[in-house]
Design brief:
Layout (H helix, E strand, L loop, with lengths): L14 H8 L9 H10 L6 H9 L2 H11 L13 H8 L1 H16 L5 H23 L6 H10 L4 H7 L3 H11 L3 H9 L3 H11 L4 H9 L17 H18 L8 H12 L3 H17 L3
């Protein structure tokens, strides 16, 4: 079990209280395949063929790789139909994301496949949307935005597996609206942002991703000192807030995470006007329509 004190805290209960609650939450162990991929992508000259071989050996990873390579975020011409071509198009960082996401999903034993399919499909859609929003902003990496958006809610299945009432509460929040973190705190004395930060760190994701996950629901996130949250995390949070809010609006879903206040703050941080936001919405709607949404 990771030591929660290593994760910065702001506007939250004391670390010892979280430690007591999270002591009974099993953070899935990082499997060997993820560590192998992490080691390979961090080399000065990663072996793309080896990464493609790892991906091709798993049906789920192969499907995710091809789907992402042909998505609106990465499609730069003709569609690719082979794993090696998809790996070459995506690059090592995104291959790492696919391996982590696929392995995380596989580690969630005890949860219905249909539920996990729905969760990860929604996460993938949002990640592509965040990447598209980031691409429209100056100086924000679309790949980093994709990574953060893909994993920022990854602890939701962990919470669902640990707390039996969680699935029903999540479904109610999604159908009726409401702040998910507040509901989690009220019912379980912890929330998916804290659990998610521990999960991201234990699985070797970049430190800035873990820190951004920890604070992405903090109402004062754009005013936190750099000692708590590095500046490079803020653009990732902002573009994901914008993408999440607009995606929920386009798909006519209840917004349980962002809300109009945080959305407005994210737009202000990015310097995005209402006219620009309207254009972003049109772009996202077109991209979602292309996926059959």
């Amino acid at each position: 079990m990771a030591n929660l004190s290593a994760v910065p805290a702001a506007s939250s209960p004391a670390p010892d209280e979280f430690e007591r609650v999270l002591a009974s939450i099993e953070i899935p162990a990082c499997p060997d395949v993820v560590m192998q991929v992490m080691a390979e992508v961090q080399k000065d000259e990663p072996d793309i063929n080896r990464l493609a071989h790892i991906i091709a050996s798993d049906v789920g990873m192969s499907a995710m790789t091809l789907k992402l390579a042909n998505s609106a975020l990465f499609n730069r011409g003709a569609a690719v139909s082979s794993v090696p071509h998809a790996v070459a198009r995506l690059g090592t960082g995104n291959i790492q994301n696919i391996v982590v996401a696929s392995s995380l999903r596989a580690s969630m034993s005890g949860l219905p496949d249909a539920l996990l399919e729905k969760f990860w499909d929604r996460a993938a859609v949002l990640a592509v949307a965040a990447g598209l929003v980031a691409r429209r902003q100056y100086g924000i990496s679309s790949d980093s935005a994709y990574t953060f958006a893909l994993f920022h809610d990854a602890a939701v299945p962990v919470m669902m597996r640990r707390f039996k009432p969680y699935a029903a509460l999540l479904e109610k929040a999604q159908s009726e609206g409401g702040n998910l973190c507040a509901i989690e705190q009220e019912n379980f004395s912890c929330s998916h942002d804290v659990v998610g930060a521990l999960l991201a760190r234990n699985w070797g994701l970049p430190a800035v991703i873990s820190q951004a996950i920890r604070f992405h629901h903090d109402p004062d996130v754009f005013g936190l000192p750099e000692s708590a949250l590095p500046r490079e995390a803020l653009p990732l949070i902002a573009v994901t807030h914008v993408a999440e809010f607009l995606t929920a609006e386009i798909l006519e879903e209840a917004d349980t995470d962002v809300g109009p206040v945080m959305y407005a703050r994210a737009l202000a941080y990015l310097g995005v006007t209402e006219a620009d936001a309207s254009e972003l919405r049109d772009d996202l709607e077109q991209a979602l329509r292309a996926t059959g949404r």
